[in-house]
Amino acid sequence: MMQTISFVESSRVKVKGLLSLNSQMFHIVINRCRDVKINDIRIVADGKSPNTDGIHVQLSTDVEIRNASIKTGDDCISIGPGTKNLWVERVTCGPGHGISIGSLGKDREEEGVQNVTVKKTVFVGTDNGLRIKSWANPSSGFVQRVRFLESLMSNVKFPLIIDQHYCPHNINCPTQVP
């Protein structure tokens, strides 16, 4: 996975005042981190650019994302397995695919996502607003204690989605959960 900035196995990280412009893929990746604060950032990519997630968080605990403007061709913020205690506040998203938890459940053994708060967000011209997506596979993964508060949406195709049969491109899709 290519990204502009990646934090791996780090703690007490602070990012403030960053502009990330036209990343080839993900702009910011937070992987296996603890105590990360991202404030006052701007992320910009063409609305048609694939795989340009603004911020991707996975296997990380105690992450805050505040005061951000994210314009991408993919998820503004993507939340992957093993994310715990994530706080997102005052984020403007668009264009893009919105804020997504997942996709989850692609692997049989997978950590869950828990304690996520998304508050005071604005979505303008996005495909989705707030989304939870999981594959229809048997998995140890889960999603619990998620709060979406005070979101404003304008020209959003699908404001809220919970998709338990996620399968991009509809190729080799699992169809059953035991």
Could you describe the 3D structure shown?
By secondary structure, the protein is mainly β. The protein has one domain (3-168): Pectate Lyase C-like. 0% of the residues lie in helices and 56% in strands. Strands 2, 3, 5, 7, 9, 11, 12, 14 and 15 form a nine-stranded parallel β-sheet that branches. Strands 1-4-6-8-10-13-16 form a seven-stranded parallel β-sheet, with no helix packed on it.
Provide a quick synopsis of the model:
The protein has 178 residues and is mainly beta. It has strands at residues 3-8, 11-16, 19-21, 26-31, 34-44, 55-58, 61-71, 77-79, 84-93, 99-104, 113-119, 122-124, 128-134, 143-149, 152-154, 158-163. Strands 2, 3, 5, 7, 9, 11, 12, 14 and 15 form a nine-stranded parallel β-sheet that branches. It has a seven-stranded parallel β-sheet with strand order 1-4-6-8-10-13-16, with no helix packed on it.
Short key terms for the protein model shown above:
0% helix; globular; 178 residues; 16 strands; mainly beta; Pectate Lyase C-like; 56% strand; 9-stranded parallel beta sheet
Q: N-to-C SSE series?
A: EEEEEEEEEEEEEEEE
The proportion of residues in beta strands is: over 45%
Mean pLDDT: 94
Secondary structure: helix percent? under 10%
CATH architecture designation? 3 Solenoid
The number of distinct β-strands equals 16
Indicate the CATH class.
Answer: Mainly Beta
State the CATH superfamily name.
Single-stranded right-handed beta-helix, Pectin lyase-like
Radius of gyration: 15 Å
Q: What is the number of helical segments per DSSP (H or I, 4+ residues)?
A: 0
Look up the CATH topology: Pectate Lyase C-like
Shape: globular
Structural class: mainly beta
Unreliably modeled segments: none
Task: Report, as a whole number of angstroms, the end-to-end distance.
Answer: 32 Å
Largest sheet: 9 strands, parallel
